[in-house]
Design a protein that fits this description.
This protein is of the alpha+beta class. The chain is 34% helix and 29% strand. Helix 1 crosses helix 2. About 5% of the residues have low confidence. One of its GO terms (molecular function) is RNA binding.
């Protein structure tokens, strides 16, 4: 779990194309990587956009170049925008205090 948190902390948010967008994959990183990353983004932005591609989603499609075939293919796309609650910063500060005092989960 610590290595996931370390990976999240090492990411430079300003390098991304859209500063509050997270590209989610179910094959590259574990779920908690994205949860922790979304929390970190929420501390810097009022909204976080989750973006993912997958064949099981039927909301819309986008054309992607398939490097192995050398031609474009259609993939399903979904985007989710998370909004910060009024007490988000307070909850994050309390969670940080718990971790520092040894009361939080690792």
């Amino acid at each position: 779990m610590e290595e996931i948190a370390d990976g999240v902390n090492k990411i430079n948010i300003s390098e991304s194309q859209k500063k509050n967008r997270i590209q989610v994959s179910n094959t590259k990183k574990p779920l908690f990587f994205y949860v922790n990353l979304a929390k970190r983004y929420m501390q810097q932005h009022n909204e976080v956009e989750l973006s993912a591609l997958g064949m099981e989603i039927t909301t819309s499609t986008v054309e992607i170049k398939d490097d192995s075939r050398g031609r474009p293919i259609q993939k399903a796309k979904i985007e989710i925008v998370l909004g910060k609650t009024v007490n988000f910063d307070e909850l994050m500060a309390a969670a940080q205090d718990d971790r520092e005092n040894g009361n939080g989960e690792d």
